[in-house]
């Protein structure tokens, strides 16, 4: 029974990294902070249609994140973008999203109630699964080597979509409990948490790039 339940040795996902990934994705998608926008866009819907819309939004978010997880690295290879550069750019982008949350700068969207559904645009893209969330999913996927890592990453994306659907489906009830002031406080707290994650990510990758160049310069100095 020794080692029963242990992960394979070539799986490098820890509990800490899973928690960080989950918190990061949930925070950057920001379903609580964007809840007032969802309620505004679906204010003319009946309860059943509003819940159905929430479900479709969650599915759309999961699909976008899964696509980024599965083909993101391929796109980086096609355009010859180094993962460290992408991580730094993604960290800066996520930091900008977090700063807008901390300063309570929210986007406003309008749609005609009788025209098209707001499920994909603007709710799923770019409100929830925007550039920040896509960059985060691609960064997580880099370095995956074992099939179990890909399964865990996919499950995480699906769980984020499920949480989004659940929060939006319970939107009217949540809005009554938290009130607009409560929603603003929650958004700012999560924004501060996301900003800390973004700063830590950028600093870690900058130091890693500097360290790699320093090692190369020491080991293989330029010829005079």
Overall, the morphology is globular
Q: What's the gyration radius in Å?
A: 20 Å
- Indicate the low-confidence ranges by residue numbers: none
Residues in helix, %: over 70%
Strand % is under 5%
Task: Please outline the major beta sheet.
Answer: none
Q: Could you tell me the number of beta strands?
A: 0
- Give the termini distance in whole angstroms: 61 Å
Counting DSSP H or I runs of 4 or more residues, the number of helices is: 8
The helix/strand class is mainly alpha
Fold topology:
Layout: H1 15-29, H2 35-41, H3 47-78, H4 83-102, H5 119-128, H6 131-141, H7 147-169, H8 171-219
Keywords:
75% helix; 8 helices; mainly alpha; 224 residues
Written account of the structure:
With 224 residues, the protein is mainly alpha-helical. It has one domain. Helices cover 75% and strands 0% of the residues. It contains 8 helices and no strands. It has helices at 15-29, 35-41, 47-78, 83-102, 119-128, 131-141, 147-169, 171-219. Helix 2 packs across helix 8 (171-219) and helix 3 packs across helix 5 (119-128). The model has no long low-confidence stretch (mean pLDDT 84).
């Amino acid at each position: 029974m020794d080692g029963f339940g242990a992960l394979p040795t070539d799986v490098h996902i820890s509990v800490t990294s899973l928690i960080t990934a989950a918190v990061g994705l949930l925070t950057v998608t920001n379903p609580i902070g964007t809840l007032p926008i969802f309620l505004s866009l679906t204010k003319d819907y009946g309860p059943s249609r509003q819940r159905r819309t929430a479900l479709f939004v969650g599915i759309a978010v999961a699909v976008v994140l899964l696509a980024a997880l599965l083909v993101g690295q391929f796109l980086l290879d096609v355009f010859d973008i180094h993962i460290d550069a992408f991580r730094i750019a993604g960290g800066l982008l996520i930091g900008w999203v977090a700063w807008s949350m901390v300063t309570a700068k929210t986007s406003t969207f309008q749609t005609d109630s009788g025209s098209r559904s707001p499920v994909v645009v603007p709710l799923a893209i770019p409100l929830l699964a925007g550039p920040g969330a896509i960059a985060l999913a691609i960064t997580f996927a880099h370095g995956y080597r074992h099939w179990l890592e890909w399964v865990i990453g996919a499950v995480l994306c699906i769980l984020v979509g499920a949480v989004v659907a659940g929060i939006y489906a319970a939107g009217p009830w949540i809005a009554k409990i938290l009130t607009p002031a409560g929603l603003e406080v929650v958004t700012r707290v999560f924004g501060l948490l996301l900003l800390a994650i973004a700063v830590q990510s950028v600093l870690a990758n900058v130091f890693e790039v500097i360290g790699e160049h320093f090692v190369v310069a020491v080991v293989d100095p330029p010829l005079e």
